[in-house]
Task: inverse folding
């Protein structure tokens, strides 16, 4: 394995990006339609302020199925304390992060700037290619 290979080539930058004030129904549809497990929540200044996962979407979706009405915005259901990875780390360190956390994806930053999402399936595929 190339221990010094960084994350840049593995990032998905074309997935959904959510705003805190986006209606939760629209955000759930974007996650389901995009077949992604999580999406970053970016504010007007471009800062990462949270992440919305499929797990986060169960409560509003279940409530909507009971009451036939969607209520709330992304900010009401997102996870605000986000575990992130820095783009310059090597893929072995990223694999260790997936071992330490149950997340299916991590937002990847360069400094404070959001670059894309690293999905564990993409990293696992790359590790298999290198082994």
Result:
């Amino acid at each position: 394995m190339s221990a010094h290979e960084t994350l840049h080539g593995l990032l998905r930058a074309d997935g959904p990006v959510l705003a805190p004030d986006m209606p939760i129904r629209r955000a759930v549809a974007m996650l389901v339609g995009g077949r992604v497990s999580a999406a970053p929540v970016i504010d007007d200044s471009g800062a990462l302020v949270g992440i919305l996962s499929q797990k986060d979407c169960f409560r509003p979706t279940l409530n909507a199925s009971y009451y036939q009405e969607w209520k709330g915005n992304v900010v009401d259901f997102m996870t605000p304390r986000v575990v992130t990875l820095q783009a310059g780390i090597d893929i072995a360190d990223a694999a260790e992060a997936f071992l330490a956390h149950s997340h299916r994806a991590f937002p990847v930053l360069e400094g404070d700037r959001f670059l894309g999402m690293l999905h564990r399936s993409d990293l696992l595929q790359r590790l298999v290619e290198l082994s």
Observations:
- The two ends are 6 Å apart (CA to CA).
